[in-house]
Design a protein that fits this description.
The protein is mostly beta strands and 150 residues long. It has a single domain, classed as Rieske [2Fe-2S] iron-sulphur domain (Rieske Iron-sulfur Protein, 3-layer Sandwich). It has no helices and 11 strands. Strands 10-2-3-4-8-9-1-11 form an 8-stranded mixed β-sheet, with no helix packed on it. The protein has a 3-stranded antiparallel β-sheet with strand order 5-6-7, with no helix packed on it. 27% of the residues are buried. Bound molecules: FE2/S2 (inorganic) cluster. The site of FE2/S2 (inorganic) cluster (FES) has 10 residues, from loops.
């Protein structure tokens, strides 16, 4: 939490994502009616200082971009790519430039780097309550769960 009622959560240390890399996080958010909803996201680190965040759901069929392959990038490493049907997305905008959902966009997230952490802003997350997640073993190896209230 932070001043002015804007939700800010540290997701990971800047150093946890290499420049040119991306990492998925399986979070939970508090939805409008107060219930918890799965909130898978991906954070992309384009270079030393530029980070981009998106809900990890392809606009075509709503599945994780990295499903199966575990990777987020096209072979050229310049664009994001959905592993299911190959839709390509601009890293900086999330807009689909090629594929079955061309012209649609990944849902962007507001990120900020604060004191060495990549933080997610404006989304109310469910904080880790220490209760084991019964679905944890189904998570992809590339998923990490790290929520630290700001
Ligand atoms: S589900 Fe992503 S391109 Fe079809």
């Amino acid at each position: 939490m932070s001043p002015n009622n804007i939700e800010v959560y540290a997701i990971c240390a800047v150093s946890n994502i290499e420049p040119g890399g991306a990492k998925a996080f399986s979070l939970s958010r508090i939805a409008g009616a107060g219930e918890n909803r799965p909130f898978p996201i991906v954070i992309v680190r384009k270079n030393a200082k530029d980070f981009f965040g998106y809900v990890n759901a392809c606009p075509h069929e709503g599945i994780w971009l990295n499903i199966g392959s575990g990777t987020f990038f096209d072979t050229d490493k310049k664009s994001l790519r959905c592993s299911r049907h190959g839709a390509r997305f601009e890293t900086e905008t999330g807009i689909c430039t090629d594929g079955p959902c061309q012209g649609a966009s990944l849902e962007p997230l507001a990120l900020a780097v604060i004191q060495g952490d990549v933080c997610l802003c404006g989304v109310a997350l469910v904080e880790d309550d220490g209760i084991p997640d019964p679905f944890a073993e189904e998570l992809d190896d590339t998923m990490e769960i790290m929520i630290h209230p700001d």
